[in-house]
Design brief:
There is one protein chain. About 20% of the residues lie in helices and about 35% in strands. With about 210 residues, it is α+β, with helices and mostly antiparallel strands. It is globular.
């Protein structure tokens, strides 16, 4: 709840920044992933060991590097930074264009098996608001029909930012840690111009 209140408190200031970006792009240009990185709060970095405050976030956007982070990739659709020195923790922003003129930004963290995800929607007039993530799939979606979980395992499913959309990641836990399980399916969420739609594919398919 405390984090939610801080996000809400930031929205008024962020709207001013976003309105400026809206003016800058009014001539017909598109908002880029870097633009969205600048506009959005740094709350996703609370899921990293290094962290990042608003001042450091702007420095990272302007200069490409801070004491603990460096830019890895910057394209109109994708902006990614990694934690120094090994770049093993990654924070990415991907933009998805909506048919109604909105821009949806997916901001994600990946660190080993763990991930975190935030979705934000930007209206053409610059207004920003958090957006709901898709409902997490059932663990059964990852297995062939009839599969039964091994006794003593507890499943969990996370939504992560993928290469061209969202990706669900399933984990099976035991009393001694993470179980090594071969999944039959992978579960993706592909952008259709208005929402993310769930797609279930063979684990080794595309």
């Amino acid at each position: 709840m405390h984090r939610i209140l801080r996000v809400v408190a930031l929205l008024a200031a962020l709207t001013v920044t976003a309105m400026g970006a809206a003016t800058a792009h009014a001539a017909g240009g598109q908002v880029t992933a870097l633009d969205m990185f600048r506009m959005l709060p740094a709350t996703i970095f609370e899921n990293t060991a290094e962290g990042l405050n608003e001042e450091e976030k702007q420095q990272l956007a302007d200069e490409g590097e801070t004491d603990f982070w460096a830019v890895i990739e910057s394209t109109p659709e994708h902006f990614e930074v990694g934690a120094l020195p090994m770049l093993d923790t990654r924070v990415s922003v991907r933009v998805f264009r909506a048919d109604n003129g909105d821009t949806l930004a997916a901001m994600g963290v990946k660190n080993g098996e763990a991930c975190a995800l935030e979705l934000w929607r930007r209206k053409p007039d610059g207004r920003l608001a958090p957006a709901a993530t898709p409902e997490e799939p059932d663990i059964a979606d990852f297995f062939a029909p009839g599969y039964k979980l091994p006794p003593g395992t507890s499943p969990s499913v996370m939504l992560c930012l993928g290469e061209d959309g969202l990706e669900a990641r399933a984990l099976l836990w035991t009393s001694t840690g993470l179980a090594q399980v071969k999944f039959d399916h992978k579960v993706l969420y592909r952008w259709n111009g208005s929402a993310f739609s769930k797609v279930i594919l063979p684990a080794d398919g595309k």
